[in-house]
Amino acid sequence: xxxxxxxxxxxxxxxxxxxxxxxxxxxxxxxxxxxxxxxxxxxxxxxxxxxxxxxxxxxxxxxxxxxxxxxxxxxxxxxxxxxxxxxxxxxxxxxxxxxxxxxxxxxxxxxxxxxxxxxxxxxxxxxxxxxxxxxxxxxxxxxxxxxxxxxxxx
Length: 154
Hints:
This protein is of the alpha+beta class. It has helices spanning about 95-110, 120-130, 140-154; strands at about 5-10, 15-20, 25-30, 35-40, 45-55, 55-70, 75-80, 80-90. It is built from three helices and eight strands, in the order ββββββββααα. A hairpin with a 4-residue loop joins β3 and β4. The radius of gyration is 16 Å and the shape is globular.
């Protein structure tokens, strides 16, 4: 059994788009023209965006920010993710998904890889989005504090 978390990404023009918005994959396999499998090491953080439409418009907009788990670890199941992951953030509905994508862009604008952001940040984003408040922005100072805390934890 592999210790990697596998994510199937899929793209069918104007119908389905399952993609990884950020994260450091350690392996990639091409299944066919429309599908690939990305693999993530245990503990790595990645964002998985799913979008589906039909003839009448968008049916599903969802974002999951997950932490990859090791084989045998407890995890939540997520479609297209094997075996699953530790869910840091799970939101659906285009307005909320769009807001999270904007937050990811803001982190990248600081020169920080979103995969390195403190997991606590992603876990608390939904609290403010559900009441239409502006989430507390991630700053370089918060990131430096997280990096120091992570060194102590290890």
